[in-house]
Design brief:
The complex is a heterodimer. Chain A is mainly beta. Chain A is 13% helix and 35% strand. Chain A has one domain (37-206): Trefoil (Acidic Fibroblast Growth Factor, subunit A) (Trefoil), CATH 2.80.10.50. In chain A, strands 1, 2, 3, 4, 5, 6, 7, 8, 9, 10, 11 and 12 form a twelve-stranded antiparallel beta sheet that branches. In chain A, a hairpin with a 7-residue loop joins β2 (51-59) and β3 (67-72). Chain A is globular, with a radius of gyration of 20 Å. Chain B contains 14 helices and eleven strands. Classes of the chains: A mainly beta, B alpha+beta. The A-B interface holds A 33, 39, 41, 75-78, 81, 83, 90, 93-95, 109, 203-209, 211, 213, 215-216, 221 and B 212-222, 224-225, 232-239, 282, 284, 288, 309-313, 318, 320, 327, 331, 359. β12 (200-208) of chain A pairs antiparallel with β2 of chain B. Chain A: Pfam families: MIR.
């Protein structure tokens, strides 16, 4: 009896192992079609509060007075599109998948400002203010965010976190709502700890398929 | 062409047009024997009923037969009326006909690409032809729809490496599955959902129908891609308005309502009044788009995909536009259609001349040689080695090479001074000797 049980358990384990080996294998044959790459434009969805990262041409009335960043419920707002770019040294050519732990900049498509945070208090919850800063995609070193995810690369279906390179806070939403003129939008701020409030998922967007671009970085010349 | 081998007395042009290369018949030659042992002789009806051959191939084959027969030698299908030599002719013709039907369409010919074409060439050819052959563009052509279908089928097979291998080996017959995606799908990969609204006509009733927002995506492009062209595959995940059960409020507006409070006393109040519309909900859908980077494309040029922007629940979706941004290249600088680059030569080379290759953007070598003195800052113009012109790819700009001379960094020692002069002299002598030898030999 005992040996039969062991046999069943071993069989189940073997089956599980086989499936485990097969699953990433089949994922690999899809050649990483579900990866987020540099140059892609997307909307980020906070899984806990179900809002999308958003910005617009409205400035904070307090703190730094820079352009505000909020969370909105609507899925068809073009002001929720952000572009994933590498750091200013050009280390992320078009089509290269974003690695977990890589520092990226998120540029707001319609206003050209980068997602940014600094030592200012946020207006509603007194956490760290997150703003949109820069001109035409160029800001400063406080625009860099590290993509925190499990695995090798940022996958589209995965829930990831964004940790600020300069101040180590996580991009979060905790549910505080603004009043007029942006009634119904939620506050987005930086929090020091990783928790359920700071997981984000890539939703709608224009995703450039991963490419092994030989022309980028031809060092043999 | 196997057509020539089998029926050279038959008008070849009409046979070969639209039927493509009947691969099965190559090498079999003529003769009665092939009639019996030829490729799987299926009756016409069976061949026609296979979904993938479709009515297109059938019609094309029927066309061919009609055109041959119509050349004044009309013969019925009844064998008892034929003489023996005509029987063999008929047999061969039937065989050819069946083979052609079975072999199906020549996808390479439909796309106008050689058999060795790369996937990029195939996409480029499809995109160009799709714009030309779209039925909306050719309302007077009765075969426009058919040609367009053929084009879609050709692209679907040749753009998939698996299907292309099967097609190359076995012809259209050898394809395992039928055509999966409808041609509309393939077309929208290149032009967007409403891509059929091309042709320069701006969308009517722009003001009346509310429109979703446009999205402009900067697409970074390298100079290599500007030189040779490329296709960028992109997955578009967008919310799409779909029917949902129930009704919703739409077209809400403020209206003034007058209410009577008493005899002769009225009050005007503002009220929000809405209509009732069928309920819609936004569902995320995905599709692949192909953005073509045309050779010679300039910074700031846009590639629109109609209808792929943000949706509007009460109206039409906006557009998605890719704006080209050419990134700086480490070696070449672009000015218009011309390319500028710097090459450093040694002091010796600047005095006695040199022979070198510059590697171009697509890897081909540009040979430059000089036998005169080259001053620092001298420029060499190589016509035709620049970038292709966007409007006419056959015209290329020039490659301008500016020479920089690598002067020695430190002062020359006495020995080096002697040595330098000596080595230059020796080099000259060697060069002269070599040249003489080569000339004599």
């Amino acid at each position: 009896m005992w040996s039969a049980g062991r046999g069943v358990a071993a069989g189940a384990a073997l089956l599980g192992l086989l499936l485990g080996l097969l699953a990433p294998g089949s994922g690999a044959t899809k050649s990483g079609a579900g990866l987020v790459t540099c140059g892609s434009v997307l909307k980020l969805f906070n899984t806990q509060h179900r809002v999308r990262l958003h910005s617009h041409d409205i400035k904070y009335g307090s703190g730094s007075g820079q352009q505000s960043v909020t969370g909105v419920e609507a899925s068809d707002d073009a002001n929720s599109y952000w572009r994933i770019r590498g750091d200013s040294k050009g280390g992320c050519p078009r089509g290269s998948p974003v690695r977990c732990g890589q520092a990226v900049r998120l540029t707001h498509v319609l206003t050209g400002k980068n997602l940014h945070t600094h030592h200012f208090p946020s207006p509603l919850s007194n956490n760290q203010e997150v703003s949109a800063f820069g001109e035409d995609g160029e800001g400063d070193d406080l625009d860099l965010w590290m993509v925190r995810c499990s695995g090798q690369h940022w996958e589209r279906q995965a829930a990831v976190r964004f940790q600020h390179m300069g101040t180590s806070v996580f991009l979060s939403v905790t549910g505080e709502q603004y009043g007029s003129p942006i009634r119904g939008q939620l506050e987005v701020h930086g929090m020091p700890s990783a928790n359920t409030h700071n997981t984000w998922k890539a939703m709608e967007g224009i995703f450039i398929k991963p490419s092994v671009d030989p022309s980028a970085g031809h060092d043999e010349l | 062409m196997s057509g020539a081998a089998i029926g050279s007395h038959l008008p070849r042009a009409s046979l070969s047009r639209g039927l493509g290369t009947p691969g099965k018949l190559t090498g079999r030659g003529g003769g009665q024997a092939s009639c019996r042992s030829g490729p799987s002789r299926r009756p016409l009806r069976e061949a026609a009923s296979q979904g993938w051959v479709g009515w297109g191939a059938d019609a094309a084959a029927a066309d061919a037969v009609r055109s041959v027969w119509g050349k004044g030698r009309h013969r019925g299908w009844h064998s008892e009326t034929m003489a023996p030599q005509n029987l063999s002719t008929f047999c061969l013709l039937l065989l050819y006909f069946i083979g052609a039907v079975i072999a199906g369409r020549d996808f390479y010919k439909i796309l106008g690409v050689p058999r060795s074409a790369s996937i990029k060439d195939i996409k480029k050819a499809y995109r160009k032809l799709a714009l030309q052959l779209h039925p909306d563009r050719n309302p007077d052509d009765p075969r426009a729809q058919e040609k367009f279908q053929d084009l879609g089928a050709a692209y679907e097979v040749l753009s998939d490496s698996e299907k292309r291998k099967q097609y190359d080996a076995y012809g259209e017959e050898g394809l395992k599955d039928g055509h999966q995606s409808s041609h509309g799908d393939i077309f929208s990969h290149f032009f967007g959902d409403f891509g059929f609204m091309f042709g320069g006509t701006p969308r009517q009733q722009d003001r009346n129908i509310p429109r979703g927002s446009d999205i402009i995506v900067d697409l970074e492009v390298t100079l290599e891609e500007v030189y040779a062209g490329n296709f960028v595959e992109v997955v578009r995940n967008k919310p799409v308005a779909r029917q949902a059960p129930g009704k919703r409020k739409c077209n809400c507006r403020q209206e003034m309502r007058t209410t009577q409070l008493g005899p002769g006393r009225f009050q005007m109040t503002q009220e929000v009044v809405c209509d009732e519309c069928p309920n819609v909900k936004l569902v995320n859908e995905e599709r692949t788009l192909e953005v073509e980077i045309e050779p010679g494309v300039r910074d700031g040029m846009e590639y629109p995909f109609i209808g792929e922007g943000e949706p509007h629940v009460d109206g039409e979706p906006g557009d998605l536009r890719f704006r080209i941004k050419v990134v700086k290249h480490p070696i070449f600088e672009r000015r218009g259609d011309d390319l500028y680059t710097n090459v450093t030569i040694s002091l010796v080379e600047s005095l006695v001349g040199f022979d070198m290759d510059v590697t171009h953007l697509d890897g081909h070598k540009v040979h430059i040689s000089r036998d005169k003195i080259t001053r620092p800052g001298a420029k060499l113009w190589k016509k035709g080695e620049g970038l292709p012109n966007f409007d006419n790819n056959n015209i290329k700009g020039s490659l301008i090479i500016t020479f920089d001379v690598d002067f020695p960094k430190e002062q020359l020692t006495e020995e080096a001074r002697e040595g330098e002069g000596y080595s230059v002299c020796m080099w000259c002598v060697c060069v002269c000797v070599c040249v003489c030898v080569c000339v004599c030999v």
